[in-house]
């Protein structure tokens, strides 16, 4: 039976290790020689970590006993659980997981003897600006992100409140859209890369967004555990890229013709409104929702200088990550 008491040097706990980011955090911890424990649900798709030697424990973020058990003997917790289904007609699950589930985890973390709690936040909690790149000190100033963004803002605020009021050694990383290999489930943006890599999506959308390589994002999580200032947040993003550039990189990686048909925002909004109408009529959650498109269109260029200065984080290049993502998806078809 596995020892959960933490004999020897402290363990590193990854909650949400089966997800895209969590699996890469786990992989980098194992590669660094750390003693790694992961907390999973029994139903989790674990293809991203099945080749790794890690200690597994099972439970969900509402199971207080399982959380305490998982954190025993750990000095760092990497929290990588996010419900990102912004298209849900009923937003209750978003707040239940992203806020109430997090509250259970933070209560357990505040009671544990942790050195650091590294929280996966999102660039959606940041401000927007038309005049300059946004930094961490800019106050969130928009309300068009729907229930998903509202839940994530509440979650980040909850974490920071625990840092102030309960001495939780927490740090938040505001991570942008991630690309790279090992996107098994896959993410919605990863699905588009898969279609481009297969030569089945000759389109690009006429907007831009902040993007980062998944391995760069995971490395930032590890750096934050060592160097992040308690109660602070850090922007983890590489570049502001158009979807045309993203899809062109993916196409080139697999020898496909680059996307050549641009879809204007007006057309995208029309299609998204049809999606939402069909969702209501069919009583089904359909992913191409207006709220997601609006959120993508609003995002501003970001300044990751604080992460570079304080964490020593420098991205290796999202171009490489997109290239590797396309090749990963192409290999799954073989």
Automatic annotation (TrEMBL):
Residues 13-236 form the NAD-dependent epimerase/dehydratase domain. SUPFAM superfamilies: NAD(P)-binding Rossmann-fold domains. It comes from the Bacteria. One of its GO terms (molecular function) is aldehyde dehydrogenase (NAD+) activity. Gene3D superfamilies: NAD(P)-binding Rossmann-like Domain. One of its GO terms (cellular component) is cytoplasm. Transmembrane segments: none annotated. This is Nucleoside-diphosphate-sugar epimerase. It comes from Mycolicibacterium fluoranthenivorans.
């Amino acid at each position: 039976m596995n020892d959960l008491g933490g004999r020897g040097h402290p363990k590193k706990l990854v909650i949400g290790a089966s997800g895209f980011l969590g699996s890469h955090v786990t992989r980098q911890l194992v590669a660094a020689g750390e003693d790694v424990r992961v907390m999973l649900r029994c139903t989790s798709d674990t293809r991203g970590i099945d080749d790794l030697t890690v200690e597994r424990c099972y439970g969900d973020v509402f199971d207080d006993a399982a959380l305490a058990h998982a954190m025993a003997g750990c000095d760092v917790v990497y929290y990588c659980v996010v419900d990102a289904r912004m298209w849900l007609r009923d937003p209750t699950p978003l707040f239940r997981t992203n806020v109430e589930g997090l509250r259970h985890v933070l209560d357990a973390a505040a009671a544990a003897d942790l050195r650091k709690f590294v929280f996966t936040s999102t660039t959606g909690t940041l401000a927007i600006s038309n005049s300059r790149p946004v930094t961490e000190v800019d106050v969130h100033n928009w309300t068009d992100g729907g229930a998903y963004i509202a839940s994530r803002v509440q979650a980040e605020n909850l974490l920071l409140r625990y840092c102030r009021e309960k001495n939780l050694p927490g740090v938040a990383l505001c991570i942008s859209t991630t690309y790279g290999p090992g996107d098994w489930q896959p993410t919605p943006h990863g699905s588009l890369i898969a279609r481009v890599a297969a030569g089945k999506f000759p389109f690009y959308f006429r907007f831009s967004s902040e993007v980062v390589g998944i391995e760069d994002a995971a490395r930032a999580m590890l750096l934050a555990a060592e160097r992040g200032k308690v109660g602070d947040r850090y922007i983890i993003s590489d570049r502001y890229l158009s979807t045309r550039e993203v899809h062109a990189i993916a196409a080139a990686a697999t020898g496909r013709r680059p996307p050549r048909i641009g879809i204007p925002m007006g057309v995208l909004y029309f299609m998204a409104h049809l999606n939402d109408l069909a969702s209501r009529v069919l009583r089904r959650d359909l992913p191409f929702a207006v709220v997601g498109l609006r959120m993508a269109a609003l995002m501003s260029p970001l300044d990751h200088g604080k992460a570079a200065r304080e964490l020593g984080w420098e991205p290796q290049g999202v171009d490489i990550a997109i290239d590797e993502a396309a090749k990963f998806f192409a290999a799954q078809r073989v």
